[in-house]
Amino acid sequence: MTLSQVQYQVMWTRLISVVEEQAQALVRTAFSTSVREAGDLSAGVYDAEGAMLAQAVTGTPGHVNAMADAVPHFIREIGRETMREGDVYLTNDPWMGTGHLHDITVVTPTFHKGALVGFFACTAHVVDIGGRGFGADGNSIYEEGLQLPIMRFADAGRVDQTLIRLIRANVREPDQLIGDLFALSTCNEIGQRRLVEMLTEFALPDLTEVAGFILGHSRDATLARIAALPQATATGHMRIDGYAAPVDLQVTVSFNGDHLLCDWTGTSGLDPKGINVPLVYTKAYACYALKCAIAPDIPNNAASLAPFSITAPADTIVNAVHPAPVALRHVIGHLVPDTIFAALDQLLPGVVPAEGAGCLCNFQLSLRPGAAAPAGARRSEVLTFNSGGAGARPALDGLSATAFPSGVMTMPVEATEHAGPIIVWRKELRPDSGGAGQFRGGLGQVMEVGARPGYRADFSAMFDRVDHPPRGRHGGADGAPTTVALDDGTRLHGKGRQPVPEGARVMLAFPGGAGYGDPAARDPAAVARDLALGYITADAARRSYGLTQPAIDAILHDAATPKG
Amino acid sequence: MTDRQIRLGADIGGTFTDVVLEVGSDRFSTKVLTTYAAPEEAIVTGLHQVCAKAGVAPDRIDQIIHGTTLATNALIERRGARTALITTDGFRDVIEMRSESRFEQYDLNLTLPLPLLARNHRHTLVERMDADGGVLIPLDRADIVALCDTLRQHDYQSIAVGLLHSYANPAHERLIREVLAAELPGVMVSLSSNVSPQMREYERFNTTVANAYIQPLIASYLHRLADRLAAEGADCPVFLMHSGGGIMDIATAADFPVRLVESGPAGGAVFAADIAARHGLDRVLSFDMGGTTAKICLIRDQTPKTARVFEVARSYRFKKGSGMPISIPVIDMVEIGAGGGSLAHVDALNQIRVGPESAGSEPGPACYGRGGTRPAVTDADLTLGKLDPATFAGGSIPLDSQASATALMTHLGDALGMDALESAWGLAEVVDETMANAARVHAVENGEDLSDYTMIAFGGAAPLHAARLCEKLGIRRCLIPPGAGVGSAIGFLRAPFSFEANRSVFMPLDAFDACTVRALFAEMQEEATAFVRSCDATAPITCDYKVFMRYKGQGWEIPVPLSREMAEAADRDAILARFEADYAALFGRTVQGMTAEITVWSVNAQTPTAPASPAAPVTAQPAPAPTGTRALFDAALGQSAEAAVYARATLTPGTHLPGPAAITEDETTIIVPASRHATALSDGCIALDSKDPS
């Protein structure tokens, strides 16, 4: 049958709504804090060939291409001819899924009138997957936790109890993990129901025609954007902390008329510890950065992602292969966009921001009762997500304490303190951390954390930009670096698990974004506001923007009276 | 007529102030332009108009019930008082740092909404509670006194106090209030443990700041209004509609002005709930579509669904996260930027997009002929034959069909290779699909299946789109009540006195303490009842009990309503069984091996709602002669057909007519597509039912 353009558009809109619904269901049922509070999840719908038709916009671009690539792996490994109604498959293979063992991807085949018509997939970051626990310290994937190859979780509706028992025996929070597996499979079920309803409403046997419409329009729109770019090539470079040694990220971006090429030749080799990145995750953040600059309004699907070609030599840190440790692949993954922006700024002036904090400033506290612990005290793992400042934009200040490129949310301190025996003593903006410029970098933040009385803690740091703060663009100043220390002044490492003595606090300062343009060109009213609100101190106003003492006094006086 | 109760409802909206006077069962209504500088003036004008229509003097009015967008607008337009926040040392920036995320992922030039209070108006004190309400750092009274010197220099009118974990132990907040009262007499004080005693500091602090910020403005307005009404002879008690769908007295409203936010739309939901009661409907989707937005609400057992938090002042295409959270008991509504004035364009993917940008009333849709050149939803409706160009707004605004066609072709048709009719179809389908998707997602979030729901549609644009929405959602019956243009103000007159008390107290069921639970419920019941009793000294008061539960480790709670017996007996097993049943209904299965826990407790006290007079059954009447016919496009069939046109005023109860048809009235037109037939009911509602018997 033939449908009108109008009806196809309605179905496309419907499918996008279905995956958003699917993602929402997961947020509401998941146990993992990172999913329910921070939005670290994905959901997508695929045609019968495994081509992704729509993906929910959730907290993390890190799943963008990974999700698009995942389902074809499942079709190959499971075998299309063995798929039955009621089947549910899963994996946490970093190379087939989304880059580390803590992300579990669940895929469900959808049947309509007995025929396989498509797939739903979703991914969530789980609390624990066994091994050493979430952190950078593994020397290979084998130390990072339980590996689940692509396999059946449910066979024609019957859940594999052997698998459940194996998982239970291998992880620290078995009830929560099993709860999350069921949440993932439920969220695919919700998507399936809607898809079947849609096919019935439009009297369609399958998704073939709709898929053709969605993918055709997406391909055309993306190619039109790429064709409008100058055909040129540029290289971006950024040095960051790494774990064992500093890491050089280098990318060459080429606009080639009908596709974009992003090649990572020149990037450092693998790190011995778990900050290496499977290529699928590098691709996700590279595509995200390119799409932000070139085609922000075109939804992600197989066709809109296809013209972006991302390559890297094997065994570079952005193309780690099995069995490299990859648990904290997000640290370097989150710095991929800033590297690409260094190249894009040469090709498309005035579009991309200065460098920012980049990677999320996450840490995990592993708490265990000490001698003086209250009765009933138990071990507990508390993971928090926090953000530094984003880089200044060509015509706007950077966003303070806001995640970029990741889109996840922080957790409320009150919720964190209910999750385990931790006290967050301070969590607020970090003055003077945004790089000076015509447009100022976003402020980072300071945090002070410790265990409740009676508990001992290990602190797993997952930070970068300790030795390599965000660099300013076009005359803007650098943002402030990360600092990590105990309250007695002892410096801690930016990465790795480190003990915290009982009663001690960890003092954290997260980086500010870098500035854009010459600070001398900054609007004096903006400088005055920054000073009045304490985004910059009097000292910085003098040093970076040349304010005189009388001017500073007048501004501070106004800020303390009704006019301010 | 002397012994009949006389009540006045007044709804101040963005454009119009609607005033409805009910004298017994007779109703008189008017619409007056809103007077921004002194909103009470429009109410007084409207009051005199309806009193004149009804032939009653203002001093005969027994009760005035009022709802207003004033609180919402003050937050959107940032027209609040000089306000400070006092918070825990280390947490000065909670309301600025928000969730540390971006609500739009791909926009490199995104800006976030500014906090209500700039950083130099956020002050801190050294003190700290832990998550259980234990004191980690005591608060020193001398520190508060010292801070008062600073506050005095700023000359604040209103102060919000938000301390960490104060929902668990409000002692420090109360100490601050005590010192402020002594040191800064006359300054208004809002405590987070009073305004919104719930866990999650950003939502609680922001709600408290919003309350403090609008309190001087609202308090002064409310007292002025009462004086002004009294001066006009209407010296009866004045009550306020609140966001939770009930009414409260002026003193409570002046203490908790943030509870007035969204009171107008809440009145619309109460209006729909009353229609639902009259028709004995337990599952209703209310659909209110006006000029710029549409609102959707689920009504179960004649009670609108409520929520504990919502977002106001969305700054970015109505996008979730682009506004500020207000955490109060509220009727749970989904607002979509889709109304008659919403404008359409073609995007980079050659897809039609509609809204949230709106043509407003000036210049209005292209067909108004007031200079609008871009196609709006109304232009599509006109082109599809849903509106009659000669009789729109009772003939007062002649519509220009050619202007609609030109706008559709210029902005959609030429780009997509479609004619004007197909462009109009596409535009209308996009807007209807958007609303249908919002309704579907909302239903899923609440574990509801819309196929056994009835829609109640009101607002100027709803009758044009309601039937198509029903087709998309699989809803078999839709009611279109009379008086839909002033639905919210009528709703005010149907609302009970009510107040909801909330507490955040964490209690895993494996550490369930029945004594504590009983005490907690008793305390909340007393608090809520006292508020209601202050409005009505004699009416019987009933309480609804609810807990919010989840499995330990989850972040989202689901509401679990409890019977009075379950609450009073503090019956752990019964509560668990109820939670498991509700959880399974929502998410398909319960979770094995996990402990359930209660996080939030709530008691809602209210007076009984006036019994709805049931709609009498009707005997079938043949349709009168149509006033004419016109070509009406049917979106489900994808083609036009000749449709009979009827005037709503001529349809006597029982009149039955098949689609395709159009039923016209002054404000709007009810579209009956080929898949439906229409029946006029005894109470003036028009029912649209699916012809398909299955």
Automatic annotation (TrEMBL), chain A:
GO terms for cellular component: cytosol. GO terms for molecular function: 5-oxoprolinase (ATP-hydrolyzing) activity. One of its GO terms (biological process) is glutathione metabolic process. Residues 470-499 are annotated as: Disordered. It comes from the Bacteria. Residues 5-519 form the Hydantoinase B/oxoprolinase domain. Pfam families: Hydantoinase_B. InterPro entries: Hydantoinase_B, Oxoprolinase-like. This is N-methylhydantoinase B. It comes from Loktanella atrilutea. The lineage of its organism: Bacteria, Pseudomonadati, Pseudomonadota, Alphaproteobacteria, Rhodobacterales.
Automatic annotation (TrEMBL), chain B:
It comes from the Bacteria. Signal peptide: none annotated. It comes from Loktanella atrilutea. Residues 204-497 form the Hydantoinase A/oxoprolinase domain. Residues 517-677 form the Acetophenone carboxylase-like C-terminal domain. One of its GO terms (biological process) is glutathione metabolic process. InterPro entries: ACX-like_C, Hydant_A_N, Hydantoinase_A, Oxoprolinase-like. This is N-methylhydantoinase A. One of its GO terms (molecular function) is 5-oxoprolinase (ATP-hydrolyzing) activity. GO terms for cellular component: cytosol. Residues 7-182 form the Hydantoinase/oxoprolinase N-terminal domain.
